[in-house]
Fold this protein.
Amino acid sequence: MKNKILFLLGLLLSTLVHAQVNTVQPSIMVTPFVPEGADIRKSLDVSNEKRQVIAQISGAFADKGFPTKDFYANYKSISQNAAFEDDVQTDLKSQIIQSSGADIFVEADISINHQSDGNSVRVVLKACEASTAKVLSSKIGDSGRFYTTDIGKLGAKAVEKAMDGFLATMQQSFEDIVVNGRSIVVNVSFDEISDFDTTSEVGESGDELRDVLEEWMEQNSFKNYYHIQGTTAKKMVFDDVRIPLKDPATGNNYNINKFSRSLANFFKGLGMSVDRDLNGGTLYIKVK
């Protein structure tokens, strides 16, 4: 009986160790909150007090063993090496995130309240998967009001109150992506003057395009998981296509843009040219 108990305890310990080894720590970039329609550069140039709080948030992730990326270092690098026109300013933040290589960006909406009876800091944290902007976790933390001008300490209190539950949910959501892949939407449509539609016979087999496209999607989606929302002559919508977090061949980060390039090459191989657009987790393909 004693040996059986020791065996079961050993098996349990082995399982726990195995689970710990397979836990993937995503890289994190903490970004300031940018209100919709606001000037991007002005929103990113936050006050020194808010930068202190952002540093506290980044430090909290580092203390938990998460690799962190410096948002402002990437912001400075991009600003110095590229000229951004007014009509692309709204994309500046996403370009900073993508160039950093971070797996997750944590948007921090920081409120600093100065009153005669004390000061307080409130943080609203929202973690999003970098490639698709899918929300993984959100939490609010409030420092409480204290007679101190040390905003860094108040920020640390607010972050501490938000962090534990926030981290647990974020990690669980991210590990689900590792196991099951990112979920994206693929919307395939045809230009009005296009010679093709979903019923066009293509390739050596002469099968209809919709059947050939579905076969390609099955072969190229993560763990062969995809779902078709609907098909007409001029449109085919895949409302849930899974893509991997890492490229199986190279181990490098894999994202929706790389998937879109592969899909564009598929159409090119059939003698079709396409326009492709990305919006968050949705890929738009238009056959010309």
